[in-house]
Amino acid sequence: MDARSSSSLVILLLAAILAASSHSHEAAISNSKGSFEDNFSIMWSHDHFSTSKDGQIWYLSLDNNTGCGFQTKQRYRFGWFSMKLKLVGGDSAGVVTAYYMCTENGAGPERDELDFEFLGNRTGEPYLIQTNVYKNGTGGREMRHMLWFDPTEDFHTYSILWNNHHILFCVDRVPIRVLRNNGKPNNFFPNDKPMYLFSSIWNADDWATRGGLEKTNWKLGPFVSSYKDFSVDACQWEDPYPECVSTTTKNWWDQYAAWHLSDDQKMDYAWVQRNLVIYDYCKDSQRYSTVPEECSLSPWA
Questions:
Q1: What mean pLDDT comes out for the span 232-250?
Q2: Beta-strand runs (E) in the chain
C-alpha cells in the first residue's frame, strides 16, 4: 500500500469514527437562528452575494474583479458560534474562503482574531484548513489540517467555542484545535475585546496554494462558497459590560463542563492530532527558537 492509499484509508476510518462520536455532542448545543438580514451585513460587493429562492442558503462569489464578504451586526464576547459551509469545488487553487471572528472590520494593528481559512486546491489534491489566533495585532499561531471528508461535496459545520478558559476550533463538532488560557495576564489568549463574526471569499494566490506556486485559474470562475444554518449562543456585547459574562452566568458555554474537553472530545482530538495535522507553529523551531508560552499548556487540562 503506497503512502497516498494509506492516507486515504486513515481518512475513511476517521470519517466513520468521528461522524459517530460527533453526534454525542449535538445535545449540548443551543441554537439561535434567523435570516441573513437578521444577523449580517454585506461588507463589500453586494452584486457578488446571492441566496437560494427560499433565502436559506447564501452564496459568496469571487471573480477576477473582486470577492465578497459579510459580518454580523452584533459583537459578542464569549459563546458558541457555528455555521455550515460548502466550499468551492473543482480547481480552486489560490482561492481562500475565510470564516473568522475579529474585533474590527479590517486588519487593525491592535485587533484580536480567531481564524478559519480554507485554502483552495488543484483538482485532486486535499483541501487544507488553516487556523490562527491573534491578540493585540500579533498572530503567527498558524496550524494546518487535512479534513476527513471532501468539504466541496456537502455542507459541514465549522464552529468556535470561546470562553475565558479555552478556545476550541471544531469541525462537525469535533475539536481540531485547542488554545488554553493560563489564567494570568498574557499576550496569546484573546479574552478582553468583543468580536464580530465574518466570512469572505478572496484571491490569495500569492501564498494560499503550495506557497503561491499554484495560481488562480480565472477561466474557471466565478468561484462560489455556500453557507447556511448560522447558529450563535453567545454573550451579546453591550457597553460598558454585558450582564451575561459574570461569575453568576448560567450559559452552558461558560459552565465548568465547557471549560474542559469531554472524554469523547479528548478521543476525537487525539485522532486528529495524530493523523490530520500538517503544520503546527508550536513545533516550528526554525521559526521560533523559543517555544511560545501557550504551547506548553496542555489541551487536556
A1: 76
A2: 40-44, 49-51, 58-62, 68-72, 76-86, 95-102, 113-119, 128-134, 143-146, 156-162, 166-171, 174-180, 196-203, 223-236, 277-280
